[in-house]
Design a protein that fits this description.
two-stranded antiparallel sheet, Penicillin binding protein transpeptidase fold, mainly alpha, 413 residues, 43% helix, single chain
Length: 413
Amino acid sequence: MPLNRSDQIVWPRRPNGMRRRSSAPQFLTKGRVSRPASWVVRLCALVVIALPSLVITSPGYVAFADQLPDPNMVTSAIPEDTLIYASDNQTLLADLHPPGYQSYYEPLSNMGTLLPEAVIAIEDRNFYDEPGIDPQGIVRAATVDIKSHRPVEGASTITQQLVKLRLVGNDATLDRKVREALLAFEIERKYTKAQILEWYLNSVFFANTAWGTAAASNIYFHKQTKDLDLAEASMLAGVIRGPTLYNPLVDWTSAKNRQKTVLDAMIRDGDITAADAAKAFAEDLSPPVHMFYPSNSVAAPAFVSYVTGLLIKQFGRDQTYTGGLRVVTTLNPQIQNIGQQAVTQNINRLRYRNITQGALVALDPTSGAIIAMVGSANPNAYGGQYNLAVWPPRNPGMLRELPMQAWSWHVPW
């Protein structure tokens, strides 16, 4: 599938079919066809320039504005996963999130340049020059989509998309579009382009449970956003327009075609060269070797379940799963592994006595902190679904209950 080359010149032909010489008065450069804007486009541009000053001062607007969402709500916190770490603050024990939703907020400065550039090129090429809406972009996108017989370019600006994601929803009504445009004007007036782009990139859906750039980079490629290469960044940028249509884990051909469109847009905007695009398009990103499916592995599951219960009790379920907490526990990963091996080996040794499960809790004798907790010898065996270290309740007189009565621990927040 050939890629567009921005340096290729297409010379006009004479009526007899011969090409004109290079000194001909007019020539066309591919991707840079210059034509006078139609009166419709000029009128739209004039309306966009005049509309804010005329509308905002009208009594009707004042009454309508009272019913608009507060534009400052665009800065409100985005639901974010809670991460639980071991005592070294490096070993990730669990990622808590609702089903079908993973998100980790990251500042624009941590995203690198490739993914933001790719998103701007395909979603809103005039992002840095427009006042919140782009009438010429609407006309251009409609023309491209009609010629392609499919949605290729966006008609909504990044600011409008942010308003849709964070403030007004996705109802296909004229009222919603009007509110979206007015709020986009207001947000552009109050905030910088960098802030708007950061909020947008952290809010947009990349399919496969990934909301925002950090989650998408981690889920698809097990990387941080700043470490994505051009092939990976252009693939992710292409998903935004149609998370179902361009999902690379569902329809690889559509995703690759969309990636090519993104790369062509980046060539057009001068972000990359045609050679860069050809190399990126040829790079193998196919799953499951180079691209990954969503997964959620949990280390020390009994301990994580125990900690999750404490978090829910203290903060509530919503805050525990979407509050973006960063929890550093007292668990020692090395001792946890030793404890798990000891329990499993002993149960295997005693299996001839029809013993199938066991549990362990190890405490730091100087502080009483839990440094290891094994809930069962084998989660897949009978009774393995329970955390036998803390359940079922036992009689206070039993010796094995003593450590559970003496425990205390600390979770630095």
